[in-house]
C-alpha cells in the first residue's frame, strides 16, 4: 500500500519512516512525501494510480490541506478514489467540519497518535 | 523788610509740618517744629523791638540761614532739599543788602528800589519753586503709585505663570507615564496577537521531541530483538537512526527554546541594547509568528509567504526586539490587508505577503509587501500618527505604526517609506543604516 504524506515540516519524513519501520521492511506500506499541496498535486498527476492513501496536514503555507483535498476530490475521482486523512494542530470544530464537507475520510489531530493511526490504516486496508 | 524772611521761615516750617504729616517722621518732628515756630515769632518780636536797622535784617538773615543749614544737614529732610534750596537766593540777596546798608548806606538809599525789588523777587522765587516742586512731587507720586500697581501686577502674573508652569510640568510627567504605559500595553497587545502563533510554533517542535523520543524507545527494543537474532548490520542501522533522532530532539528542543526566548524578549521592557543581528532570521521568525497568529484566529485564512533574503547581508547593530516588533506590526498589517481583500471574494485572488532584504549602499533595506486592499490616498499621511487606525474598535490600538516610526527613525536613525495603490498593493520599506 502506498501512502503519500503531505506536511511542510521536513522532519515528518524520518519520523514516519521510523514509526513504520517494520511495515516498510515487510513491504506492507510504502511512503512518499510532499512538502506542500502543490508538490502533492504534482506527485499525484504522475503516479495517481499507485497512491492508495493520502495523509495531509491542513496548515501549510501556500495551498492549504483543505484546498488540496478539494483538488483531489475534483481531479482524481476515478475509482477507487484515494482515502484522504486530514491532520491538523488546530483540532477544532470548524476545521473538522470543513474537512468532512470537502470529502475527507478521516480527521486526525497533532500530535499524531501513531498507534491509533496504525489501527486506522489496518481498517482501511481490510476494507 | 525783615518780615519777609520771617514769613519765609514760618512758611518753611508749616510746609515741612504738612509734608511729614502722614509719614513716620511726624512723631519725631512735629512738636520740635511747632516749638520752632513759636520761638521764631519771639525772635521776630524781639528783633523788631530791640534791634536797630539794618542790624535787624542781619539777625533775620542769619536766623534764616541757620534754619536752612539745620534742615539741610538733617538727612530726614532730604526729600525737601529742593524746596529748602529755593531759599538760597533770598539769603544771598538779603545778605548783600545788609552788607551794603552797613558799609555803603548812601549807595543803598539812592538805589533802594532795586534792593527792595531783588528781595521781593527772591522771596517770590520760593513760591515759584514750591509750586513746581509740588507738581513734580505729584507726578512722582503718581508714577510711584503706578509702579506699585505694576509691581503688584508683575508679581501676580509671575505667580500665575509659575503655577501654570508647575501644572504643565505635572501634565508632561503624567503624559510621559501614560505614554510608557501605552507602549507597554501595545507590546502586550501584540504579544497577545502572537500567543496563538507562538503556541503553534512551540507545539510543532514539542511534537517532534515527543515523537522522536518515543520512536527511539521502540527502536531500542527492536535493536534488542535484532541483537538476539545476531543481525549486526540491522543493529548498526538502528543505532544510527537513534543517533539521528537524538540529534532531531536536540534541534527541536532548541527551536522551542528560541521561540520562548524571543517571546520573553518581546514582552520585556526594551533594554535598548543594540546587538549585531541577522535581519533575515529576525524577519523570518516574526513572519512565521504573525502568520500562525492570524491562522489561529481565522482557520480558513491562507496566504502565500514569499521571502527574498539577501544571503550576503551583513550583521547589523540594532535592538532586535524593537525592530522585531516593527516587523511583526508590518506583517500583521499585511496579513490584515490581504484578509480584508479576500473577504471581498475577488475571483482568482491569491493572498501573498512578501518580505525581502537587500543591502543598498550604506543602508539595509527590508521591504514588506502585500497584495491586499492598499492604503487610500487621503489617509496616507495619517497612518503614522499615534492612535490613527482603520481597524474596528478593539482590533487595533492605532499605535503600531507610530511606535514603528519611533523605533526605526528616532531610535535607529533609519527611514520608513510607504508605497501603496488602493486596491492593489502596499509596501512598507524600512531602511536601516549599516
UniProtKB/TrEMBL annotation, chain A:
Pfam families the UniProt entry points to: Response_reg (PF00072)
Domain Response regulatory: residue ranges: 2-125
4-aspartylphosphate found at: 57
Keyword terms, alphabetized: Phosphoprotein
Highest taxon of source: Bacteria
SMART domains membership: REC
InterPro entries documented for this protein: Bact_response_regulator, CheY-like_superfamily, Sig_transdc_resp-reg_receiver
Protein name as annotated: Response regulator
Organism this protein belongs to: Mucilaginibacter pankratovii
From TrEMBL, chain B:
GO molecular function per UniProt: kinase activity
Coiled-coil intervals: 158-185
Listed transmembrane segments: 28-48, 55-71, 86-104, 113-131
EC number(s) reported in the record: 2.7.13.3
InterPro entries in alphabetical order: HATPase_C_sf (IPR036890), HATPase_dom (IPR003594), His_kinase_dom (IPR005467), HisK_dim/P_dom (IPR003661), HisK_dim/P_sf (IPR036097), Sig_transdc_His_kin-like_C (IPR004358)
Keywords per UniProt: Coiled coil, Kinase, Membrane, Phosphoprotein, Transferase, Transmembrane, Transmembrane helix
Domain Histidine kinase: 197-434
Source organism superkingdom: Bacteria
Gene3D superfamilies named in the record: 1.10.287.130, Histidine kinase-like ATPase, C-terminal domain
Catalysed transformations (reactions): ATP + protein L-histidine = ADP + protein N-phospho-L-histidine
PANTHER family with a match to the protein in the record: SENSOR HISTIDINE KINASE, TWO-COMPONENT SENSOR PPRA
Protein name from the UniProt record: histidine kinase
Amino acid at each position: 500500500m502506498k501512502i503519500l504524506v503531505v506536511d511542510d515540516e521536513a522532519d515528518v519524513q524520518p519520523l514516519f519512516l521510523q514509526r513504520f519501520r517494520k511495515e516498510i521492511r515487510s513491504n506492507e506500506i510504502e511512503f512518499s512525501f510532499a512538502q506542500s499541496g502543490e508538490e502533492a498535486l504534482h506527485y499525484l498527476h504522475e503516479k495517481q494510480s499507485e497512491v492508495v492513501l493520502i495523509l495531509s496536514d491542513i496548515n501549510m503555507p501556500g495551498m492549504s490541506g483543505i484546498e488540496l483535498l478539494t483538488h483531489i476530490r475534483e481531479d482524481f475521482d476515478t475509482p477507487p478514489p484515494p482515502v484522504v486523512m486530514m491532520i491538523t494542530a488546530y483540532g477544532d470544530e470548524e476545521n473538522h467540519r470543513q474537512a468532512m464537507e470537502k470529502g475527507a475520510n478521516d480527521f486526525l489531530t497533532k500530535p499524531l497518535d501513531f498507534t491509533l493511526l496504525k489501527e486506522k490504516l489496518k481498517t482501511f486496508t481490510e476494507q | 523788610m525783615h518780615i519777609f524772611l520771617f514769613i519765609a521761615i514760618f512758611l518753611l516750617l508749616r510746609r515741612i509740618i504738612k509734608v511729614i504729616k502722614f509719614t513716620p517722621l511726624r512723631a519725631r518732628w512735629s512738636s520740635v517744629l511747632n516749638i520752632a515756630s513759636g520761638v521764631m515769632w519771639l525772635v521776630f518780636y524781639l528783633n523788631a523791638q530791640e534791634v536797630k536797622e539794618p542790624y535787624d535784617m542781619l539777625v533775620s538773615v542769619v536766623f534764616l540761614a541757620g534754619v536752612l543749614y539745620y534742615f539741610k544737614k538733617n538727612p530726614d529732610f532730604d526729600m525737601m532739599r529742593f524746596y529748602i534750596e529755593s531759599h538760597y537766593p533770598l539769603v544771598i540777596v538779603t545778605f548783600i543788602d545788609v552788607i551794603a546798608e552797613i558799609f555803603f548806606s548812601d549807595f543803598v538809599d539812592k538805589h533802594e528800589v532795586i534792593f527792595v525789588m531783588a528781595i521781593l523777587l527772591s522771596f517770590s522765587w520760593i513760591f515759584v519753586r514750591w509750586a513746581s516742586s509740588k507738581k513734580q512731587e505729584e507726578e512722582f507720586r503718581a508714577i510711584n503709585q503706578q509702579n506699585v500697581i505694576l509691581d503688584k501686577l508683575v508679581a501676580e502674573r509671575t505667580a500665575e505663570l509659575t503655577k501654570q508652569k508647575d501644572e504643565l510640568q505635572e501634565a508632561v510627567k503624567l503624559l510621559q507615564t501614560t505614554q510608557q504605559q501605552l507602549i507597554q500595553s501595545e507590546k502586550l497587545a501584540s504579544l497577545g496577537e502572537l500567543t496563538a502563533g507562538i503556541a503553534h510554533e512551540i507545539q510543532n517542535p514539542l511534537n517532534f521531541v515527543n515523537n522522536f523520543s518515543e520512536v527511539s524507545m521502540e527502536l531500542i527494543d527492536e535493536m534488542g530483538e535484532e541483537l538476539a537474532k545476531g543481525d549486526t548490520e540491522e543493529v548498526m542501522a538502528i543505532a544510527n537512526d537513534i543517533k539521528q533522532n537524538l540529534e532531531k530532539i536536540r534541534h527541536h528542543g532548541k527551536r522551542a527554546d528560541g521561540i520562548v526566548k524571543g517571546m520573553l524578549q518581546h514582552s520585556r521592557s526594551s533594554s535598548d541594547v543594540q546587538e549585531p543581528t541577522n535581519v533575515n532570521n529576525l524577519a523570518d521568525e516574526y513572519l512565521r509568528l504573525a502568520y500562525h497568529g492570524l491562522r489561529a484566529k481565522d482557520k480558513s485564512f491562507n496566504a502565500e509567504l514569499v521571502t527574498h533574503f539577501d544571503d550576503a547581508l551583513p550583521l547589523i547593530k540594532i535592538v532586535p526586539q524593537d525592530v522585531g516588533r516593527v516587523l511583526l506590526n508590518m506583517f500583521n498589517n499585511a496579513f490584515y490587508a490581504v484578509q480584508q481583500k479576500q473577504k471581498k471574494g475577488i475571483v482568482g485572488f491569491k493572498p501573498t505577503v512578501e518580505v525581502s532584504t537587500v543591502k543598498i549602499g550604506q543602508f539595509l533595506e527590508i521591504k514588506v509587501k502585500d497584495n491586499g486592499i492598499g492604503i487610500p490616498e487621503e489617509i496616507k499621511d495619517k497612518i503614522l500618527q499615534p492612535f490613527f487606525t482603520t481597524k474596528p474598535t478593539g482590533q487595533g490600538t492605532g499605535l503600531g505604526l507610530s511606535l514603528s516610526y519611533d523605533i526605526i527613525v528616532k531610535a535607529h536613525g533609519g527611514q520608513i517609506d510607504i508605497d501603496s495603490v488602493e486596491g492593489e498593493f502596499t509596501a512598507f520599506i524600512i531602511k536601516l543604516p549599516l
